[in-house]
From TrEMBL:
Transmembrane segments: none annotated. Pfam families: HD (PF01966), HD_assoc (PF13286). This is Deoxyguanosinetriphosphate triphosphohydrolase. InterPro entries: dGTP_triP_hydro_central_sf, dGTP_triphosphohydrolase_C, dGTPase, dGTPase-like, HD/PDEase_dom, HD_domain, PHydrolase_assoc_dom. Residues 8-24 have a biased composition (Basic and acidic residues). Gene3D superfamilies: eoxyguanosinetriphosphate triphosphohydrolase domain-like, Hypothetical protein af1432, putative deoxyguanosinetriphosphate triphosphohydrolase like domain. NCBIfam families: dGTP_triPase, PRK01096.1. GO terms for molecular function: dGTPase activity.
Length: 450
């Protein structure tokens, strides 16, 4: 059985003492985590990454940045509310100087970073990277040079695992606490496992790549996370709240964006949100607001507030089962509003996620990311493996890689997995706009300055 005192450890990788050692410090360890994330370059890049709708034409809809800020806000509310329950239930936590705000700060920081590993062009970008290695000649060509579990990483790109990689990377200098990193990791398993347990939500996807498995094992040991088998752990309990914050926000706010764009009628949107609000919905009060945007704003706020209360209640009711590992579901699947949320999800798939603007954006994303991976992967392969094909064009392409890109020490007998991992880091870290611009330049569609 996991215990809260150990689960809330603020220790960090490569740190012999706590960062916030001064008793007069005005920030907790977990607030430091939040501040480090929000000032980091990877987080800042989210302002130019797609949430659902294309960015240039529709500036009034959400980007990954605004979505992440909203998820973090909801996460803080979930964490603080659950924290108050836990402090009352376990008096020893208060005796150790733990406050409900610490729970809120952990969930807020982890939620703030939850999309930090997502590539350009949303989920289409994830598929594009995976498909490149599965199907493209200059992606598939690497298969015989890497190990099977490493190939699983490359052919199943996962934004959650990429996010963990970025958060523990020494290059980014974040040095987050173990508790925040574990709360961030909704899927505490690698890509390659012997057998997935389909009854466990935490095994639906994977949360770290092969070369970060030792990092996760270390933090899991420090926090006392229960190991299910040789490859998988139980979730950190606060990961359930991070997941709920994301589920609540994208369900309600994607619907709001879809209504704003005219893909879903205001009448249908109001009806769906009213089903969640129940007796709290007062249509006569709604009529006092003159514009649809005002009506949407008040309904969105009330609906999110209601869902927060339901999710906290579900978490507290199942807290002991979460600690023992007997509970492993999404909280939003078991709350009273689960069915209305499912209706919203089905409608969103039909009318929003498969709308023309979204499909056009996804098609462009496949083309752009495949094109970028092709030119760089081809040049790397020619330089180190098919050296007789290495050309002046390849040399020019490789000069476009970052200055710190690891171009030394590779030869045909050396496993190129770290090299390919660095390439995927480079491509997935791009913003939508930069990826499109670089694609046009390397393909000769446009020239610098035009």
């Amino acid at each position: 059985m996991m215990n809260w005192e150990k689960l809330l450890s603020s220790d960090r990788f490569d740190s012999s003492k706590k960062e916030n050692s001064s008793p007069e410090s005005f920030r907790s360890e977990f607030e430091i985590d939040y501040d480090r994330i929000i000032f980091s370059a990877p987080f800042r890049n989210l302002q130019d990454k797609t949430q659902v709708f294309p960015l240039p034409e529709y500036d009034f809809v959400h980007t990954r940045l605004t979505h992440s800020l909203e998820v973090s806000s909801v996460g803080r509310s979930l964490g603080k509310s659950a924290g108050e329950y836990l402090i009352n239930k376990y008096p020893n936590l208060a005796e150790k100087g733990i406050h409900s705000s610490d729970f809120g700060a952990i969930v807020a920081a982890a939620a703030l970073a939850h999309d930090i590993g997502n590539p350009p062009f949303g989920h289409a970008g994830e598929e594009a990277i995976s498909d490149f290695f599965k199907h493209h000649p200059y992606g598939f060509i690497w298969r015989t040079h890497v190990k099977p579990h490493e190939w699983d990483d490359l052919t199943n790109f996962e934004g959650n695992a990429q996010g963990f990689r970025m958060l523990v990377s020494k290059d980014n200098g974040l040095k987050l606490s173990y508790a925040t990193l574990a709360a961030f990791t909704k899927y505490p398993r690698p890509s390659h496992i012997f057998k997935r347990d389909h009854n466990r939500r935490s095994q639906k996807k994977f949360g770290f790549f092969t070369d970060q498995q030792k990092d996760y094992a270390q933090l899991a040991s420090e926090l006392g996370l229960t190991k299910i088998n040789a490859e998988c752990w139980l979730r950190h309990p606060l990961a359930f709240l991070v997941e709920a914050a994301d589920d609540i926000c994208y369900s309600i706010i994607d619907l709001e964006d879809g209504c704003t764009m005219g893909l879903v009628s205001i009448e249908q949107t109001v009806e769906l949100l009213a089903e969640i609000l129940g007796d709290k919905f007062k249509p006569e009060k709604l009529e006092k607001y003159k514009t649809d945007s005002q009506k949407l704003a008040i309904l969105r706020a009330m609906t999110i507030g209601s869902l927060i209360s339901e999710a906290v209640e579900a978490f507290c009711a199942n807290e002991e089962a979460i600690l023992s590992g007997d509970f492993d579901q999404a909280l939003t699947d078991i709350i009273p509003s689960a069915k209305p949320l499912e209706k919203i999800s089905h409608l969103s798939v039909k009318k929003i996620y498969r709308s023309k603007p979204v499909l056009e954006k996804e098609a462009a994303g496949f083309q752009v990311l495949e094109g970028l991976l092709e030119v760089f992967s081809k040049a790397l392969n020619h330089k180190f493996y098919q050296t007789e094909l290495y050309s002046g064009k390849d040399k020019s392409i490789l000069r476009l890689l970052p200055e710190d890109f690891p171009l030394d020490g590779w030869e045909i007998k050396v496993n190129p997995y770290p090299l390919l991992r660095a390439l995927v880091d480079f491509i997935s870290g791009m913003t939508d706009r930069y990826a499109l611009s670089l694609y046009r330049r390397v393909k000769g569609i446009s020239l610098p300055g035009t």
